[in-house]
C-alpha cells in the first residue's frame, strides 16, 4: 500500500495557525505521515508532542543551512549544519533529509561546481553513516520555479550520486520538477531507481493538486512503484481547495 506524506508547509495550513495543529489536521484527515521544510524556524518541542499525540511519522525535512553546495567555501558551514540536521531528523524519526544544490554560480565553470558539490557530499556521507538517516539531493526545474538553480537534470543528479558512491547519498525525485523540464520518468530513472530516497508530486501548470493539470502523475507513480520504489510520496503542492476532502481527492487522482 502506498504511503502519502502531506507537506504541511502548504497542506492543512490556515492563516495564523499553530504549525503543530497542521499535524493534527493531517491525522484527522486520514494521513499517516507529514513532512516539512526548514526546522530551524519551528518549535520542535511542540512538533514532537503533536507527532507523539497523533502517531504520525515524519518522512523528510530539509538539511540546513540552505546554502550553495556548488561553492566549496560553504562546505564547512554546511557540514556542521548537516550534523545538527541529522540530530533533529533522528529526534523526529525522519529517515530522509533533503538538500538543494544551490545556484549556478557566476565565475565558476559547471565542472568546478559539480566537483564542489560531490566533494561536499562525500564527507556528508560520513556524518550520515550509521545514523539511519539518508540525504536526498533534489533536482529542480529552472523554467518556472527555480531560475538560476544549478541542478535541473535528474540524470545529472544521479550522476553526482554515482560520483559520491555512498549509500547514504541519493536524490529526491520530484515528478513536477522533472515533468516541467520535459523529462520522462521511465527514461531518467531506468536502472537507477535505487538512488531515489523520496518522491514528490504536484501538477502542472500551477504546481497545484494532482488532477488539476496535465502531468500523467498516476502513470509515472505506477511505473516508479512497479519498478521497486517502496518509499513515501510527498504531497508537495499548493492546494486550491482547503480541507481533508480535497487532499483525499488528490490522492485518488494519483491512484492511491
Automatic annotation (TrEMBL):
**Gene Ontology MF terms:** hydroxypyruvate isomerase activity
UniProt protein name: Hydroxypyruvate isomerase
Q: Where is the Xylose isomerase-like TIM barrel domain?
A: 24-253
Q: Which family does it belong to?
A: Belongs to the hyi family.
Q: Name one Pfam family in it.
A: AP_endonuc_2
Identify which top EC class this enzyme belongs to. Answer: isomerase
The EC number on file is 5.3.1.22
Record bears the keyword Secreted: no
Sorted keywords for this record are:
Isomerase
Gene3D superfamilies in the cross-refs: Divalent-metal-dependent TIM barrel enzymes (3.20.20.150)
Q: Which InterPro entries match?
A: HyI-like (IPR026040), Sugar_Epim/Isomerase (IPR050417), Xyl_isomerase-like_sf (IPR036237), Xyl_isomerase-like_TIM-brl (IPR013022)
Amino acid at each position: 500500500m502506498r504511503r502519502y506524506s502531506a507537506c504541511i508547509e502548504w497542506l492543512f495550513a490556515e492563516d495564523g495557525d499553530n504549525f503543530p495543529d497542521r499535524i493534527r489536521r493531517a491525522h484527522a484527515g486520514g494521513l499517516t505521515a507529514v513532512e516539512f521544510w526548514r526546522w530551524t524556524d519551528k518549535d520542535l518541542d511542540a512538533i514532537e508532542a503533536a507527532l507523539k499525540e497523533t502517531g504520525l511519522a515524519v518522512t523528510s525535512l530539509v538539511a540546513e543551512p540552505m546554502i550553495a553546495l556548488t561553492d566549496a567555501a560553504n562546505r564547512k558551514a554546511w557540514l556542521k549544519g548537516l550534523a545538527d540536521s541529522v540530530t533533529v531528523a533522528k529526534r523526529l524519526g525522519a529517515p530522509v533529509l533533503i538538500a538543494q544544490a544551490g545556484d549556478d554560480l557566476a565565475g565558476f565553470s559547471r565542472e568546478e561546481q559539480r566537483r564542489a558539490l560531490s566533494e561536499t557530499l562525500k564527507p556528508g556521507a560520513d556524518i550520515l553513516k550509521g545514523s539511519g538517516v539518508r540525504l536526498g539531493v533534489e533536482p529542480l526545474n529552472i523554467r518556472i520555479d527555480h531560475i538560476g538553480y544549478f541542478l535541473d537534470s535528474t540524470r545529472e543528479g544521479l550522476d553526482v550520486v554515482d560520483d559520491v558512491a555512498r549509500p547514504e547519498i541519493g536524490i529526491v525525485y520530484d515528478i513536477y520538477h522533472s515533468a516541467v523540464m520535459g523529462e520522462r520518468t521511465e527514461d531518467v530513472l531506468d536502472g537507477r531507481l535505487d538512488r531515489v530516497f523520496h518522491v514528490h508530486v504536484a501538477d502542472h501548470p500551477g504546481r497545484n493538486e494532482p488532477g488539476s493539470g496535465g502531468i500523467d502523475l498516476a502513470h509515472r507513480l505506477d511505473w516508479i512503484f512497479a519498478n521497486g520504489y517502496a518509499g513515501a510520496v510527498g504531497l508537495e503542492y499548493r492546494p486550491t481547495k482547503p480541507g481533508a476532502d480535497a487532499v483525499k481527492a488528490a490522492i485518488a487522482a494519483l491512484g492511491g
